[in-house]
Amino acid sequence: MTAAPSADPAPGADGPLPERLARAIALGGPIPVSQYMAAANAHYYATRDPLGAAGDFTTAPEISQMFGELIGLWAADLWDRAGRPDVRWVELGPGRGTLTADAMRAAAKAGFAPPVHFVETSPVLRAEQAKRVPGATWHDDVEDLPTDRPLIVVTNEFFDALPIRQLVRRAGSWHERFVACQDTLFLPIPGKQVPDAIIPPHLVDAPAGSIIETSPASVGIMRVLAARIVAQGGAALLIDYGYEGPAIGDTLQAVRGHAFANPFEAPGERDLTAHVDFATLGAVGLASGARIAGPDRQGEFLRTLGIDARAAALGPKVAADRDRLVDAMGTLFKVLAIHHPDWPRPAGFA
Fold first, then answer.
1. Which end of the chain has less neighbouring CB within 10 Å, N or C?
2. What pTM, to 2 d.p., does this model score?
3. What is the DSSP secondary structure assignment for residue 267, as one 8-state letter?
């Protein structure tokens, strides 16, 4: 869950986002789910801090300092085994900056204190990040990241908020799913037919009503990251909830006030996400010339990194936080790493 790229349906237009989307649909017809999701999330993240008890959701770094600390030590270990090169730390969609603040505090004890770079478009969240990581440098896009040294990149609940395409099976053919509107009531409908050639062969004849999701935005960002790591050195660690696809299923969801909500109501006022296809992201990394580790379950990854020992050191007060990170979130959330072919294999993976 993170700041999404801008996708204003009517640049320069006035009025609430639902009204602007309704006008755009009235003028140009139904829009793809991907366009709807991009516009909704761009507005949502640009206008609020959605994290914490007073917000809509809580991410792993906000649950416990242990999460960020272990990621920092993971990076410090990798950097040390790579020969302690001059690197830059990058986080995509860093929320309030809590993960990086905890990571850098722990990593500094191991001598790892690289310059910090954030990829973030939300002015509200940039202000929060500046409070926790005062020396950070901000970028609007992964393309803007420095090219002069290796990168150690971390993403936590970043890819899940990127827009997805949905393809729905009906009457013996596949169609892209669009969003229509009636008096600001938004609803998904089957749109234009797509060729079977773009459907995974084992899913072409799926039952009517089946849905396949793809995320060209995620693939594009992964390509850039992998190309940078292959060219510059370093590694990227991706943590998110998801699966190893391709698979059938509708995972588009909305969260408001820590509860699930209708993703087609009040666009821009609730967080829209979809499960991440880790198999596709890993394949992109391999095709770009990088090595991959994982995906593994978050619970196993954190246990391997030593969360039980850290929890014991902090005392009984963190037992519930440890259980939430390892048990409650530990199976659905996955961890994938890509790294330069000459860099050592990152720790934490089976």
1. C
2. 0.94
3. T
Write b or e for each residue in 137-152: b if 16 or more Cβ atoms lie within 10 A of its Cβ, otherwise e: eebeebeebeeeebbb
Residue-wise DSSP of 19-53? HHHHHHHHHH--EEHHHHHHHHHHHHHHT---BST
Residue 4 has pLDDT above 50, yes or no: no
DSSP string for residues in 167-188: EEEETTEEEEEEEEEETTEEEE
Helix boundaries (H) for 181-277: 216-232
Round the CA-based radius of gyration of the chain to a whole number and report it. Answer: 20
- Spatial distance between the Cα atoms of 59 and 52, rounded to a whole number of angstroms: 8
DSSP-derived secondary structure letter, 196: G
C-alpha to C-alpha distance for 18 and 303, rounded to whole angstroms: 44
Instruction: Specify the pLDDT at position 294.
Output: 97
Distance CA(248)–CA(174), nearest Å, equals 13
Chain-centroid distance of CA 209 in Å reads: 27
Nearest Cα to Cα of residue 162 among 277, 249, 282: 277
| Other CB atoms within 10 A of residue 90 CB | 27
d(CA 141, CA 149): 18
What residues contact residue 27 under an 8 Å CB cut-off, 6+ apart?
A: none
Task: State the Cα–Cα distance between residues 32 and 149, nearest whole angstrom.
Answer: 39
- CA-wise closest residue to 71 among 16, 174, 152: 152
Q: Tell me how many degrees the CA angle 318-322-323 measures, rounded to the nearest 5.
A: 120
Tens digits of residue pLDDT in 207-247: 999 999 999 999 999 999 999 999 999 999 999 999 998 88
